[in-house]
Design a protein that fits this description.
Length: 188
């Protein structure tokens, strides 16, 4: 029974990756950081405002060395949280646009990409290195508290205002350098 309980979150995650965006090649293939937006995901996933005003969760996530933070550490600045995994094709496809967004919005919006890979840094760090990402950081949360606790699929991206209150969330991949994303981010 215990093993069944432990496997349920994993089963939910494997079946949860939003596959509305067609996958090109391997799900764990690396999309280069300098990939043109022509190869980026379509305009966007579904915007959900039903959680507007809810406080950011206090789930911890860690850097590659295991140093933990929570979203409360970023209060005072808007934060865009992207929940993703290296095995999720739509997640991988949108990562270069998140890198470009983080460069463009540096100093205004903090972009956090929090991996839900069970192997954490062992998967995420090599992926970031191979992709050449220099602005976004390889955060990990292998306990799956974000996805299971918030009941979301991958990829999901959530915008929190400077007070740690949710503004909206996007279910599915988005082209984060496009006009739709720019208008959404203009809400903070």
């Amino acid at each position: 029974m215990r093993s069944l309980i432990l496997l349920l979150p994993l089963a939910a995650m494997v079946g949860a990756c939003d596959t509305q965006t067609p996958a090109d090649g391997q799900a764990n293939a690396v999309a280069p950081a300098n990939e043109s937006t022509a190869a980026a995901p379509a305009a966007g996933g579904k915007v959900d405002r039903s959680h507007k005003g809810e406080a950011a969760p206090d789930y911890p996530f860690a850097d590659p060395e295991g140093v933990k933070k929570t979203l409360a550490d970023y209060r005072g600045k808007p934060v865009l949280v992207n929940l993703w995994a290296t095995w999720c094709a739509p997640c991988v496809k949108e990562m270069p646009t998140l890198e470009a967004l983080a460069k463009r919005e540096s100093g205004r919006i903090e972009v956090l990409t929090i991996s839900q890979d069970l192997d954490g840094p062992a998967k995420v760090v090599p992926y970031f290195k191979k992709a050449g990402f220099t602005t976004i950081e390889p955060w990990s949360e292998s306990d799956l508290r974000f996805t299971t606790g918030m009941g979301v699929n991958l990829p999901t991206t959530i915008l929190y205002d400077k007070d740690g209150k949710e503004v909206w969330r996007v279910a599915g991949a988005m082209e984060w350098t496009g006009d739709e994303a720019k208008a959404l981010l203009g809400e903070v």
